[in-house]
Design a protein that fits this description.
The protein is an alpha/beta fold and 321 residues long. It has helices at residues 15-24, 38-48, 60-72, 88-96, 138-147, 200-207, 217-227, 230-253, 276-284, 308-319; strands spanning 2-3, 55-58, 78-83, 99-104, 122-126, 151-155, 176-181, 194-198, 257-258, 265-269, 287-288, 290-291, 300-304. The model has no long low-confidence stretch (mean pLDDT 97).
């Protein structure tokens, strides 16, 4: 099976992660983990240049998204985000009883001006965006934060594959919360580790509603090791970015329109042509890609950047149709 539908990293994590997990899987697993993930937050502070009291660890960035809404949104409160984007936003707002204010992207996926005028308690911005892979420039992110009165959550799950990030806004703008995950670039999707960067007063609200022991002992240890070996992550990112260029060129030769991607996936379109049958035909050949059967995306496939061999197999299967 060639799995190019969930944006996992095709390469293993740092060898230091596997060595750390082997050492950590001892009798100490009978004990609860550190509820404040202090070793992980200290390592993250060193790596990202953000004070430790500006960092909160979570069970993946998905948990951190849920904590934001649990801490800030009452039934009926408005939560804004551009669409199409990460589908979990709408689900989490509904669970909390909030009102989703969905502001459509244009065909070029530039930041829609109406987003800052939504009068929302919370605004989500996935950057780079999924499923498009496009990146909103930092100056526009800052302008959005200054325009709205609510909390701006910049979801940077894929940012290590991109040329810029919003961590410089943390603390300087008290309403900005930047989320990271170790699932994508660090190849730790199976361990569920996320980090929130924000003003301590903002994080204090999230701490009041989080589970006491939300990140396991093994996950914390592995994350510390992963953050301690940035060259391993950066080497994998470089390989993914190089293959992303090959994948984009190959898809364009086959007649797809591919948006410029700054993530570990691409969005390939054939305007006006439903790509559901293509996704099903690929699945029949044990190649999984993501098709969104929803208005505006029927003509698109989101394809994770796999290894060179996986990408070659995908392109060959598409040529054979």
């Amino acid at each position: 099976m060639i799995k190019l539908n969930t944006n996992e990293n095709p390469y293993p994590p740092s060898p230091a992660v596997l060595e750390t997990l082997a050492r950590a899987a001892d009798a100490s697993v009978r004990l609860y983990p550190d509820p404040e993930a202090r070793a992980l937050r200290a390592r993250a502070a060193e790596v990202y240049g953000v004070p430790m009291d500006h960092i909160l660890a979570g069970n993946g960035s998905d948990e951190l998204l849920a904590l934001v809404l649990r801490a800030t949104v009452d039934p009926g409160d408005r939560v804004a985000f551009p669409v199409p984007s990460y589908s979990l936003y709408e689900t989490l707002v509904a669970v909390q009883g909030g009102e989703s204010v969905q502001v459509p992207f244009g065909d070029d996926f530039r930041l829609p001006p109406a987003l800052g005028r939504a009068r929302a308690r919370v605004t989500f911005l996935c950057n780079p965006n999924s499923p498009s892979g496009t990146l909103v420039p930092l100056a526009e992110v800052e302008a959005l934060a200054r325009e709205g009165a609510g909390v701006l959550v910049v979801d940077e799950a894929y940012v290590d594959f991109a040329p810029s990030h919003a961590l410089g806004l943390v603390g300087r703008l008290p309403n900005v919360l930047v989320l990271r995950t170790l699932s994508k670039s660090f190849s730790l999707a199976g361990l569920r580790v996320g980090l929130a960067f924000g003003h301590p007063e903002l994080l204090a609200g999230l701490r009041t509603v989080k589970d006491s022991y939300n990140v396991s002992r093994l996950s914390q240890a592995a994350a510390v090791a992963a953050l301690g070996d940035l060259p391993a992550m950066q080497a994998n990112v470089a390989r993914v970015r190089a293959t992303r260029s090959r994948l984009t060129a190959g898809l364009e030769r086959l007649g797809f329109r591919v948006l410029p991607s700054e993530a570990n996936f691409v969005l390939a379109r054939r305007p006006g042509v439903d790509q559901g049958p293509v996704a099903r035909a690929l699945a029949a050949r044990d190649i999984l890609v993501r098709h969104f059967a929803q208005p505006g995306l029927e003509d698109a496939l989101r394809i994770t950047v796999g290894t060179d061999d996986e990408v070659d197999a995908l392109l060959a299967a598409l040529r054979a149709r």
